[in-house]
Amino acid sequence: MNPLLEVSDLQAWYGESHVLHGVNLHVNEGETICILGRNGMGKTTTLRTIMGILRKRRGTIRFAGEDMMGVPLHRSARAGLGFVPEERGIFASLTVDENMTLPPKVAEGGMTSDEIYTLFPNLLERRGSQGTKLSGGEQQMLAMARILRTGCRCILLDEPTEGLAPVIIQRIGDVLRTLKARGMTVVLVEQNFRFAEKVADRFYLMDHGQMVEEFPTADLPQHRDALHRALGV
Amino acid sequence: MTTILGVPLQALLGQLLVGLINGSFYALLSLGLAVIFGLLRVINFAHGAQYMLGAFAALLLLKGLGLNYWFALVLAPVLVGLFGAVIERLFLSRLYKLDPLYGLLFTFGLALTIEGVFRWLYGSSGQPYSVPELLRGTVNLGFMFLPIYRGWVVIASLVACLVVWFVIERTKLGAYLRAATENPVLVQAFGINVPLLLTLTYALGAALAAFAGVLAAPIYQVSPLMGTNLIIVVFAVVVVGGMGSILGAVFTGYMLGIAEGLTKVFFPEASNIVIFVIMAIVLLLRPAGLFGKEA
Question: What domain range is A30 assigned to?
Answer without folding.
Answer: 5-231
